[in-house]
TrEMBL record:
Keyword Transmembrane: no
Alphabetical list of InterPro entries matching this protein: AB_hydrolase_fold (IPR029058), Esterase-like (IPR000801), S-formylglutathione_hydrol (IPR014186)
SUPFAM superfamilies found in the cross-reference section: alpha/beta-Hydrolases
Protein name listed in UniProt: S-formylglutathione hydrolase
Length: 294
């Protein structure tokens, strides 16, 4: 599948590409950003997929996360997908509230909706996008499908955790490692997740259980497992108690005797990109080690 280069920008020691392509999964045009460090010219390098949170576009973390400095340091590419399809034509009975920023465009929740045909973000992120990038010119110097890790923030942290865990159980192509900033860790037990699952799925929250990181990791399939997960959340995050449910994720990990999951609660930090950018170096070093770059 071909990608259209909308803009090529010199940044840090590499190039940022603003791309669009036609997606079969979401039945429309998708935008994404791709950062390619200069080390890509020296051999095939691994990829980190960064999944953004509610209301975000590919530009939020690209412009405020400063991952590019770490990509140059360690030698990995960064893919910044969009958070949903855009310019969606909704069914008449969809009852979409365009003022609700937590549903619809910018809030795809990285799932496959069985109510709205455009919202197949699970298939798009996990299958179509990596395969399409691999088949493109960029695939000659970047490994998009095997040496790959996933990182996310908020709603994107939920997606990152769910995708990584599903890779462990071979439901999708596996990721080497996973990290998340302030993830929505137990979406079936918080307003954002409950509203989203009821909106996107015919069976509502019940269908959303298969994407809930806390429910997945507490299952028998993960009992005693050794994983590679890093989670960081600020205790001054306004959504800490009402939406993130970090403590329930921690309890599930402990109850199932799972190793290799580090959850850090950082004093004084909120939900913003000031928080994310502060801990990006730590998260990138974690991934670089797991990807064999250090």
């Amino acid at each position: 599948m071909s990608f259209n280069i909308i803009k090529e920008i010199s940044v840090c020691k590499g190039k940022l590409y603003k791309l669009t392509h036609e997606s079969t999964a979401v039945k429309g045009t998708m935008s994404l950003n791709l950062y390619v460090p200069s080390t890509a010219s020296k051999g095939k390098i691994p990829t980190i997929y960064y999944l953004s949170g509610l209301t975000c576009t590919p530009d939020n973390c690209t412009e405020k996360g400063f991952i590019q400095f770490q990509a140059d340091k360690f030698g990995f590419a960064v893919v910044y997908p969009d958070t949903s399809p855009r310019n969606v034509t909704w069914p008449e009975k969809a009852n979409v509230d365009t003022n609700n920023w937590a549903l619809g465009e910018g809030a795809g929740f990285y799932l496959n909706s069985d109510k709205f045909e455009n919202f197949k973000m699970f298939d798009y992120i996990c299958k179509e996008l990596p395969e399409s990038l691999s088949e493109s010119e960029f695939g000659k110097t970047i490994d998009f499908t095997e040496r790959k890790s996933v990182m996310g923030h908020s709603m994107g942290g939920m997606g990152a955790l769910a995708f990584y865990l599903k890779g462990i159980t071979n439901e999708i192509s596996p990721y080497v490692s996973c990290s998340a900033f302030a993830p929505v860790a137990n979406p079936t037990d918080c307003p954002w997740g409950v509203d989203a699952f009821n909106f996107y799925f015919k069976d509502g929250v019940k269908a959303g259980e298969s994407l809930d990181p806390t429910l997945i990791i507490k299952s028998d399939a993960f009992k005693g497992k050794k994983l590679d997960i890093l989670v960081t959340t600020g205790n001054s995050d306004p959504f800490f108690k009402s939406q993130l449910r970090t403590e329930k994720f921690i309890r599930a990990v402990e109850d199932n005797n799972i190793e290799g999951v580090s959850v850090n609660i950082e004093d004084g930090f909120d939900h913003s990109y000031f928080f994310v950018s502060t801990f990006v170096p730590q998260h990138c070093a974690f991934h670089a080690q797991k990807l064999g770059l250090i």
